[in-house]
Request: fold
Amino acid sequence: MQREAAIREPLILGDKSYKDITDDVVGPIQGPAPIGWKIMITISSIIAVYGVGCILYLLGTGIGVWGLNKTVGWAWDITNFVWWVGIGHAGTLISAVLLLFRQKWRMAINRSAEAMTIFAVIMAAIFPGIHMGRIWVSYWVLPLPNQFGSLWVNFNSPLLWDVFAISTYFSVSLVFWYIGLIPDFATIRDRMTKPFAKKAYGLLSFGWSGRAKHWTRFEEVSLVLAGIATPLVFSVHSIVSMDFATSIVPGWHTTIFPPYFVSGAVFSGFAMVQTLLLIMRKGMKLESYIHVKHVEYMNIVIIVTGSIVGVAYLTELFISWYSGVEYESYAFINRFSGPYSWAYWIMMTCNVISPQLFWFKKIRRSLTATFALSIVVNIGMWFERYVIIVTSIHRDYDPSSWGEFYPTNIDIGVFIGTLGIFFTLFLGFARFFPVLALNELKTILKSSGENYKKIQDKH
Amino acid sequence: MNKVFHVMYDDDDTLKTAASQLVAKGIRVKEVFSPFPIHGIDPIIGVKRTRLGIAAFMYASTGTALALLGMWYFMISDWPMNIGGKPSFSLIENLPAFIPVTFEFSVLCGAHGMAITYLLRNGTLPGMPATNPDPRTTDNMFVMEITTEQNSLAAEALEAAIKETQLFELSIKDYK
Reply:
């Protein structure tokens, strides 16, 4: 049996047995829906329906209903795309990278973080899709034989790399998530008494029976998928950053972008995980499994990635001056003192200053402070993308074509709508899916459960 | 008439000790059902290491080859285009731009190939019936399956040996 140092804080609090873990996770699925959940899903579905309405109006009318203009041809939509993809980075990072590093605390949070990833990537994929205007021909991004002569998509373009990166990331994350879900669905299947629910979970569990050989394969598949999903996480946001970095727009054309974007993505992803989990643990009474220590670990990741992002901001600022390129230098002077300086300073405060508060142990271990700061970071990361995208192109080489971007109601509606769709999906997940990787958690009960650690200390 | 013994334990370590005791007596354990992977049970009951990792490597290599072949055909052979003066008439010269898609496609093929193989080899597919002998094995119980067919001992001797372990429950069934 694996043993853990006595001074390590237990990961599972209270006097839990294997059965308690099952009951704590499956209980809320079997019981009636709590009133709080009903209220939240009603609100988020109304917002989702509004968002879908805005999208349909956009598709019916054309992308002229957005605030884009000749100068700022990429703004709100791509900001949202990058923001959602960034959020979608925490799930696979938690489940893949932390699996490779054998971090046991991931087990309490990986399931919901992966669900968040999948829903966030779906939200992200909406934006380039609807930006095409004629969404029904979006299959043109694929290299399919066609009737236009030998016209193929351009494999030299980062935009096409993105098509491959996002679709691979989405489908691999989905498979990784589902393979982990199968044994937990089997647990629910065997607990359900109502025939319809039993049948539904039976179908979802693919007839999983927990044979020894199957578990061996399960562990191998998890390990190999983690091994290949890890570079995938880094590649996806690197490619997203190359959408900008390979252009010749001042403010975009920098080699620092891939690591800067990847750490920013992890930073915002963890912030979103904190926002969601702090509500979920309370609502679903999972305080024994997701507790202060987990929150503290995540806050440490937030300090590290937030600091990398901070260093990246200062580096690009310094290099823009040091390069001696006047266009590059102006792009940054314009960022912090131009018409969008308010956005720049929101970004700086939210992303550089606020995560540094987590150096104080009291703040790092306070759930209220963490919740507040996680929202601050999410806002900051949205503004980071807005600043990078809009301020760089609204004033580039030719002053006669300078302009500004103002979002329309449809711009805002689509963004708020994706938040609604995201929360609706996540709430659906929280109600019907096993929100903790319960069978994986059972493997650490003896080494990291509070009751078992106490017995171990006595000997 | 053959008999099948389903020996239930309420702890993974107890099951592992019991399995070692029985195997030491020359008894073959057919299967173990558990709610989570019991580390160290495989060598005791003779489960071989899976070759899924090798399969994944092969799928991923196929992906690499297909991606390179595809891009060579689309961009170099079928319709070379001058895009901003980038090299477009030789695969080697154009390769740096092809690396991201090659990587992504390799991961795509490796991950999905492996996942599909895993599900097929397990026989865990949509609509398959559950085959665990007791619903508690997905919760907190651990079951060892032993058959008279696979063992030379008589049913009574097997039962006696099984009862020497710290079992929680025993069910004996006949089957053809």
About this structure: Chain A touches chain B through 68 residues (CB under 8 Å).
